Amino acid sequence: MNFYNEMMDANGGVRPHYQGYDEWLKATPPERIARKRAEADLAFHRVGITFAVYGEEAGKERLIPFDIIPRIIPSAEWAAMQAGLRQRVTTLNMFLHDIYHDQEILKAGKIPAEQILNNAQYRPVMKGVDVPGGVYAHIAGVDIVRAGAGEFYVLEDNLRVPSGVSYMLEDRKMMMRLFPELFAKHKVAPVQHYPDMLLEKLRAVAPNGVSDPTVVVLTPGAYNSAYFEHTFLAQQMGVELVEGRDLFVKNETVYMRTTQGPQRVDVIYRRLDDDYMDPEVFRDDSTLGVPGILRAYQAGNVTLANAIGTGVADDKSIYPYVPEMIRFYLGEEPLLNNVPTYMCRKPDELKYVLAHLSELVVKEVHGAGGYGMLVGPASTKEQIEHFRQLLIAKPDGYIAQPTLALSNCPTFVEEGIAPRHLDLRPFVLSSGKCVNMVPGGLTRVALTKGSLVVNSSQGGGTKDTWILED
Amino acid sequence: MLSRTADHLFWMSRYIERAENLARLLDVTWQMSLVPQPLEVANQNWKAIIALNSLEEAFEKKYSTVNAENVLKFMVSDPDNFASIHSCLRMARENAHAVRGTVTSEMWETLNSTWLEAREKTFEQLYNAGIADFFEWVKMRSSLSRGTTLGTLLQDEAFNFIRLGTLLERADNTARILDVKYHVLRPQGEEEGATDFYQWGALLRSVSAFEVYRKVYRDVITPERVAELLILRSDMPRSLHFCLNGVVKNLDLIENSLSLETQRQAGMLHALLHYARVEDILEQGLHEWLTDFMDRIYLLGNGISRDFLVPMVETA
């Protein structure tokens, strides 16, 4: 397979937007780079920017490897991507409002109704509930990859509790600290105002009549893999970081327990999945949530960001319909590509998938984090056979896509500098008609040679992402 | 402030203070054991440390004999012993981790790196390198933690809860050290022995009070004055009186609609120290007096917990 290299063109020349960096890299002694890389490692450890890995010893924390070669995107490419993201996230919010209200898109036959209504992520409790501004996915993390000759594809829309934005911010801080001279030389669009933008969005969706809302971040607790990010965002926004046990509901109103007595809470940026939010409605064995919070939510006394029930829109079985949604709601052609997707619940498509397993990527419909997926070309016969059995047993649990030739970018690895595959997760913030994002996003890089899985839980690292201003 | 946040801050400071005082207690026992004495007496001193924390059962499960090395190992590095220095440093760090958005990054980094460094070393390494150095290190790390708190944290409610934790724990711990050592040194009616000077000196050093004693009394060391210094001197930072001054002051700053009774109890205990005479305390029996004091500190801790940290709220 031929891969698009972010830094070099097909003839081995340096692309224009990387020329400044390339000159700097060539002029900088390797010892200085090595020293700076060690410094970065130490600093990340000392500050404790870590994440917990599921399945490993409880409470064990790992550093996400940080690579000092930035991922650079020219401003024109970013402008196009940004327009596509606005269009896509606007549509997904309209779609969510629709399926929890009049279900026009189902009536029009654009999506089979049972695909939505029988989906485990569809929450009937949300039917007829009006959320402020009609916004469901206040924070969306849309995964974008570059493939083929350089075109962008949306890999998935994360509309539940997308994480990673703290790494985007810390990576930038680290780059500026290690190599200030690079920022004097390049006009890199700033990203550090993300927490302010987020707080502004959260305040904007407060329940009606609340002029100075109390905003909190709700975390599952210190053992969650993204706990660092939860504390980071709460601190950056200057709001309380709460756990479920800090909150209680009285008279369909949410309060937090403080040292000066109960205090009303208006907006909750929750980093807890739907299933755990309210033991009265969802999983009754959950101790992470708040009993009665859904009643308060339905009564319009508190805003949850993201809303309950967004998972139905980022489900991999719904993903293939997004281009059609854009046409339906906006009457526009999609600006960003979808990856062609085989729906294994359709017998003829399943047949094709089973015959081509060694070429395809198979994903669990409800999976996330790189768990439960098969990358055909990189798998053993046993792994492929294992998935074949899974597919036959439960075809509607899976989709398949062609293995994309993900673009790569030079990266520091054991043997020196070598190309590694990467993706990009911009964070798209919505409130009412207003959709904003800071330039760029989080670039994740697969550090294992040839690997196409960039998730940090699977050994991925991160890079600073630069949108170059003209 | 969130009640849970206050709870973590309170226990963060209690655990680091506890680690420090445990290091002080073990250090003085270790120093005392270096003065020539019968093995029985020495082991009696080590046994007292286990008894002090009511850990006899847990200790006997793992170790067959009470001696210096076993007790040190159990109280310094044993991760299964929730009262060991190792466990205290871990708990201090875990509580800080839970509120790292509330404490300053310097405070978090101090407790985090203290824990990371402590868990690197096995007991054998610490012992062979000189265990006294380790105790010194623990004391310095605790001082550093207190220093970063004083030097970097906004003096708001968070600060008050941290100070409350530190002072309440210290009051309890100083009382314990005094209780256990005083009675080893001064069994009922016995005359002073030749080694007493060193033993009293070590006790004073364990609470950083040796030079203080010299400065305050300019006289030979007597048990009565040691008791007076550690209980009643309001300007001696590790004395019970000093601790209660701070407890009362910080409680007043955070008072809420539930806390009146707790404040009253703290005030009563403070008054007891403020107006007491050491002769009366000794006449009553120091052990009895200290036991009563520690009970009241315990109740005070419960009161703070009930009023501020884990308040019961009626929900519907």
Features:
heterodimer, A: 5-stranded mixed sheet, 5-stranded mixed sheet, B: 316 residues, 0% strand
Report on the structure:
The complex is a heterodimer of chains A (470) and B (316). By secondary structure, chain A is α+β, with helices and mostly antiparallel strands. Chain A is 31% helix and 25% strand. Chain A has 15 helices and 23 strands. Chain A has a 5-stranded mixed β-sheet. A 5-stranded mixed β-sheet of chain A has the order 13-5-4-20-21. In chain A, helix 3 crosses helix 13 (322-330). The model of chain A is unreliable at 53-59 (pLDDT under 50). In chain B, 75% of the residues lie in helices and 0% in strands. The radius of gyration of chain B is 20 Å and the shape is globular. The mean pLDDT of chain B is 90. Chains A and B meet through helix 9, strand 7, strand 8 and strand 9 of A and helix 1, helix 5 and helix 6 of B.
Instruction: Kindly state the percentage of residues in helix of chain A.
Output: 25-40%
**Broad shape of chain A:** globular
Structural class of the helix and strand makeup of chain A? alpha+beta
Helix content of chain B: over 70%
Mean pLDDT of chain B: 90
List the total number of helices of chain B. Answer: 16
Amino- and carboxy-terminal Cα gap of chain B:
23 Å
Strand content of chain A: 15-25%
The multimeric state of the shown protein is: heterodimer
Q: How many runs of DSSP E, i.e. beta strands of chain B?
A: 0
Tell me the major beta sheet of chain A: 5 strands, mixed
Taking pLDDT < 50 over at least 5 consecutive residues as the criterion, the unreliable ranges of chain B are none
Note the main sheet of chain B: none
What is the gist of this entry?
The complex is a heterodimer of chains A (about 475) and B (about 325). Chain A has about 475 residues and is of the alpha+beta class.
